[in-house]
Design a protein that fits this description.
Elements: H1 3-20, H2 32-39, H3 41-69, H4 103-106, E1 113-120, E2 126-130, H5 142-153, E3 161-166, E4 172-176, H6 200-214, E5 220-226, H7 243-246, H8 276-291, E6 297-305, E7 314-319, H9 323-331, H10 336-349, H11 359-371, H12 394-406, H13 412-417, E8 442-449, E9 452-460, E10 466-474, H14 482-496
Parallel strand pairs: 4-5, 5-6
Antiparallel strand pairs: 1-2, 1-10, 3-4, 3-7, 8-9, 9-10
Helix pairs in contact: 5-9, 5-10, 5-11, 6-8, 9-10, 10-11
Amino acid sequence: MSRREARGRDANRRSAPEAGGQKNPAGPAGGGLRALVSKHPLAWLLGALGVVFVLLGTGAVFAGVAVASTPAAAPTTKATTAPPRPIPSALPTASRLRTCSVAGPASDPRLMTLTGSVMRADTGEVLWDHGASVGVPTASTMKLLIASAAVAVLTPDFQIATDVVDGSTAGTVVLVGHGDPTLSALPAGEQSVYAGAPKLSDLASQVVTAYAARHPGVPITQVVLDASYWNPADNWDSSVKQSERTQGYQSLTTALQVDGDRSNPKAQTSARSTDPVGRAGAAFIQALKNADPGGVVGASISTSTGSAVSGAAGLGEVKSQPVRTLISQMLLPSDNTLGEMLARIVSKVSGFDGTYASLQQAIPGALNSGFKIPAAGLTIVDGSGESANNKVPPATMTSLLRLIQAGSLNLDVVRAAMPVAGKSGTLASRFSGANAVVRGNVTAKTGWIDTEYALAGFMTAADGTALVFAFDAVGPGIKSSAQSALDTLTVAAYSCGDNLSNN
């Protein structure tokens, strides 16, 4: 046997017990545990303590399992279910992100303090709100409210009568006014600023004929002037400068007058007097003399103020053109006197007394009952908008303009009477230069007083969206250049259309 083989056999002999799996208590696989403990006592002690803590921590779990394994008594209370979550009746709709801003034109210093509102005409969605819930003076955009109230209360076909009735004494006739300022003293064939207005000459001819038949041989010697449809002394609001009258923008608000009390009936702006009732009386006497075939009218006729006797016999009557025409004659040139008169008549027909004070109830009441326009925030001082004490929130104005733009509830009468940019009325010469792009596409009412410029109306925007808007620029000493600033702001809204952002 070689030495290599002998070494191999000896090696096989030494490993055989291990290969056979025989136990060896003194070796590592058997009695080795005691050796390990004795060799590393601290490590084994710490390990044992860890096992104890784990067993203690899980003991409750095993106890729970044991308890759960035993049959449990039936529960003493019924299981409850959570109440159903409320589901909204209408889920919110997504709102598009609009990105077109008018912040630049809106911050033009010429506008001083600007408030305003822009809405989609079809849906009423507010696209731009600049303090629109706060009441501000209106200037002549007030006439949109007056026109709408007249449509609601008087109806478009209503006509204003001027009557002559028998007096209570022989030789006396009574001229009774009901608020028609268009009654004209011009002769037949001549037109005042109120084209198609009734004529004093026609009324005088009726009176002469009827009076002669009733009182043959008794000449007319006295004319009583009845302007008592409302208090004739309540004819001017103290917050409006008298220069508006002397410069020819507005007459005293009396129920009896002719040609709007103009010195020149053919001129829109013409000085007015301090006695429109007396002026009307003098014109009527002249008309009676012109109509007299001889002997009916006395050589001398006196006048006095008073009231007709109830039930007095009628001698003649003429009527104004329908309200639809009067609204056009008011809105296109912004006629202040017609605005005041229509407001007073709305008050009277609504059951009030026709005074300035009554307008605060009469006009909001008419707008609310006729068109559901809320009265909140409305302060109505006059019918022309000349008073800076009027207050109308721009949001209320645009709510009304939505109805006007749609022509709802006879408001097509108002829509048809409004000025159009670059074409008619007070907008005929507006929107020039770069702003001319909107000519024919913007219909609006203008407004101006010493402390404000205003513009309110509707448009078809560049993208075809119908918008309604109301802009009010207010401040002491505001300049006429605010007009072009308002035009530029309007053009900016036109360019944005439905993409107009409220930022």
